[in-house]
Amino acid sequence: MNLFKKLLPLLAVLLVACGAPNADQATNEDLNVVTTFYPMYDFTQNVVGENGTVTALLEAGQDTHGYEPTPKDMAAVAEADVFVYSSEYMETWVPAVLDTLVDSDVTVINASEGIPFYEGDSHDEDESHDEDEEEHYEGDGHNHAVDPHVWLDPVYAKQMVETISSGIQEVDAENAAAYQANTEEYVKELEALNQEFQTAFADAENRVFVVQHAAFGYLARRYELEEVSISALTSNQEVSPAKLAEIGKYINENDIEVIYYQDSGNNDLAQTLANETGIELGVLSAIEGITAEDQAAGVDYLTTMRENLEALKLTIN
């Protein structure tokens, strides 16, 4: 049992003692929304606009899976009007947080509600190990067999935004019309993004792309592409020499010209294969490492997804 779980009972008592804002406080203040990590922050900010305050618990580069909320983080969630997260597959620590909110007035929004998740490629692991991973998830909240990266599919991103908007409108009915207008405007941009991907890849003959970390499966499925990954869903997974040799052979036999690594992760495996096969390195972003400086420079979900599109055009053509 990790320290976070050991402290949960004490944290719950402290949060109850501190108390969530009462009704009068909530009425006199702007809507306060706490999100988990950047994609949820960006989606929610586009819904809320100027009618509230949106913050994210995780900073750019923090490990979303292994994150453990501090008492300060727990208090921020308990004092919020709304708490938005992606899924229990991505933020594996969220169920423990929700257990502390049973006596709170916080509205919890699971942005991926209704989205079908699928199990990712586990490479060197056989079916029995997949079952073990499911037990691992039930036992301590970690499951890397299920791919959690649904927001990288623009169609699912649109669904997540609409789910977030619906929940926020219920909490703050007074400003529901403004939230709906913001949502409709942002949804149009997501629909345009989806159309750009569809148009770019509609007639492509080469539909395979090779990545270091298997984070782009939903995007691949949406546009009928094939993601071939060195490591599976666990970004820090150790990869055997045999696996590296297998991918290297695949690259050579299929005339792959680019191998992609994730912008917020280590690129050692991709660099090794690029050196061995003589192909170029490319960057794809899972949009988890957008910093405050990036945001100030105009970087967001839409601009980063368009950069991903341009990067994939090097291979998908």
Description of the structure:
- This protein has 317 residues and is α/β, with parallel strands linked by helices.
- The protein has 13 helices and 8 strands.
- The strands form 2 sheets. It has a 4-stranded parallel beta sheet with strand order 2-1-3-4, with helices on one face.
- β7 (258-262), α11 and β8 form a beta-alpha-beta unit.
- α3 crosses α7 (154-171) and α8 (176-201) packs parallel to α13.
- The protein is globular.
- It starts with a helix and ends in a 5-residue tail after the last helix.
Average the pLDDT over all residues and give the rounded result.
85
For the report, how would you describe the main beta sheet? 4 strands, parallel
Provide the structure class. alpha/beta
CATH topology group of the largest domain = Rossmann fold
What series of H and E elements makes up the topology?
Answer: HHEHEHEHEHHHEHEHEHEHH
Low-confidence stretches: 3-28, 122-143
Number of strands: 8
Keywords:
four-stranded parallel beta sheet, alpha/beta, Rossmann fold, 2 domains, 13 helices, 317 residues, disordered N terminus
Topology:
Blueprint: H1 3-18, H2 23-28, E1 31-35, H3 38-48, E2 52-56, H4 71-78, E3 82-85, H5 94-99, E4 107-110, H6 127-140, H7 154-171, H8 176-201, E5 208-213, H9 217-222, E6 226-231, H10 241-253, E7 258-262, H11 268-277, E8 280-284, H12 292-296, H13 301-312
Parallel strand pairs: 1-2, 1-3, 3-4, 5-6, 5-7, 7-8
